[in-house]
Fold these 4 entries.
Entry 1:
Amino acid sequence: MMKKILPYLALALPLVLNLAHSKPTGATTDIKTLLLRQIDEERMAYRLYTQLGEEHPNMRPFQNIPHAEKRHFNALVDYTKAHFPGSTDGKLEGDFHFEATQTLYDKWLAEGKASPQAAAQVGVQLEQLDIADIDEVLVQKPEPALAQILNNLRRGSENHLAAFERQLAGGGGKDKGQGKGKMKGRANMPSCCAK
């Protein structure tokens, strides 16, 4: 019996060794790529909210939140330029790093122009995606300076999420407190980082 199994083991051994040295399917992405994705999302949020604010000038979140998104973008760009020189141009109106971000931007802009309700729903989806992606970076246990930036951005995104949820509920006053919206898992959200 052992003689019958040995040939199969000899064939299987290279495959097992190869699998042991390959990167796991669910492996986390490197910090630089995650940062570039976050920069893309902040750039997208700024542009979307600015455009939708022009389309729906009476929606208060679109008048206030773009300023915060610009600060978020600048904080990420400053950190990324210091730690990964040459990886980003740092221009708010620059090109997206990932083609999927451009696709998502185009989709959400078209949806958001349809009505104030649709625009607020776009805001909810974007902030949920942003929070999920920030959490993905935080799971990597980044160094303290980056962790502090990301935690600040996450709090801001929670506040923005709460503002858009209030808008959907018929409110829309000034941001107060943390967002308490139900988070959709990243699996249910479109990804901005596909190459």
Entry 2:
Amino acid sequence: MGNRSRAREAALKTLYQMDVTGDSPADALKIFFRHHRVAVGSQPFVTRLVEGTTQRLAEIDPLIRRHATNWTLERMAIVDRNILRLGVYELLHETETPPKVVINEAVDLAKRFGTADSGKFVNGVLDSIHKTERVECP
């Protein structure tokens, strides 16, 4: 697994922690970095993913709601919800990463940490968002 893949995993775990505990991004990142090994060179990327995702939830969550047919955010498994949030953030705001890579990475996370159907679910939602909503953002 590459450094960026491990960084995405760390970001997912931090977002999950925040969703469960209500911790702020700064507190959650501090706790995560204290208790888990994350390469020093990867920490800025993890931080950017976590902070960027949480700062843009007002933009991200409505997109997920619109594309997750027959699902509400509240009904989704916490891990699936946070993989989708992370994936949408990265699709729209980390535009140096090709969309196929973003989606594949999100699907891999869903297969590792979600249910048997999580990979298909995440792939379907992110692919739909990518095809209909993707805009280049600075």
Entry 3:
Amino acid sequence: MNTLMFAVWPYVALTIFVVGWIWRWRTDQYGWGTRTSELSEKKILWWASPTFHAGVLLVVFGHIAGLIVPKSWTTALGISEHAYHLGAVVLGTVSGLILLAGVVGLMLRRFVLKSRQRLITRPGDVVMYVVLAIQMVLGLTETIAYSAAQAIPGFDYRENVSIWFRSIFYLHPNTAAMAGVPLVFQLHAIAAFLFFAVWPFSRLVHVWSAPVGYLTRPPIVYRASVPR
């Protein structure tokens, strides 16, 4: 099971991630976007959407610092273990709560309120929201456990989870590093790759789109109509 979840599943998920983007682009270019619903509801969207995007950016940067940057680098920079974990706990909690607030707002307007949001919600979007909610619960559980003054005594995810994560991209997954990891961290890792697998089939495809053409296209000239 350890090999299946931490050596096989990541590559299966990443394969779906890559092939899914290609398939989506070739078959659904007109659906490539967020399918905005601003015209049908604005009161919640105006704060939930910016909150969600700010939370995502903070969480992504936090994961980069925790998973990709080796422990030896922060030690070489003179950052003590206490300072690192204190910053990780504070910033991780704040980032997670910001993201949670944004997701709750978006899910509220889409699934709870009686509006047209549900009519334009695809199955992939529903799965994406569910997986994202699970990820946030697991992530906040990890962070809260850390903040409780070593609720998991002696555990440092940079000495096992981070090493395993980086080893995936070396094409030599270190499954042994995940053998003694607490269950909540294992589930968080498995669900993370599930999120990658679902991503291409949801409205989050707009992450890969940028209006670069607007920088070079001629300006649009608007003229007032002259009454005759």
Entry 4:
Amino acid sequence: MSEITRPENMPKTAMIMAAGFGTRMRPLTDSMPKPLVPVLGKPLIDYSMDLLVESGVGEAVVNSHYLAEMLEGYLRQRKNTPHIIISREDGILETGGGIKNALKLFDSEEFFVVNSDVICLSGKTPALLRLWQHWDGAKMDALLLLHKVEDAIGYDGAGDFFIETDGSLRRRLTSEKAPFVFTGVQVISRRLFTDSPEGAFSLNVLYNRNLVRIGALVHDGNWLHVGSESELRQAETWLEKPV
């Protein structure tokens, strides 16, 4: 990947979502939080950290809950990492509630969000930089990085979205299969949380209420879904010998 120039106005902070129980990864997650499950000897969360580092994002807010002490202990001893701020949750707040609970830790209007149970490998341009290059704050409250279902590694779901001819998003109906899956990587504006629920809630609640202000960008690199032990093995096989 060639040397990049980071725009001055690009967010310097990202949130890494790491509080969940990782139930589909059991029994591996009986004794460790899912973000610490190793993929080729490297904890899952480190792949998310790599995504920040390559784009020059210098601060990571990480939410924690399940086996929080173990996760936080690992993060404290990391070297060559973005500055880490922990957002401990007394109870699981889900994706929307978890981010809302951490808003006080961000000092900018926009910030990146990265799930810790996926491996997103950039194409020619670092993924977060590319997202920011396509960000339009006048029209968007969030910009989601999507990936073609047919090219996703370790993913066998029905997809999440259609991209219409005008560029707008449409969620798939229950009976449909959509061509694009959400990668768990995005840019979000604080505006998305205006009049949002209290406590635990999904980000989908906020997307769905005003989908016209949710943008989409198709990922130009590789994306590996690591939700279960079998998907973990698929990811390791692919990473050892990409196809």
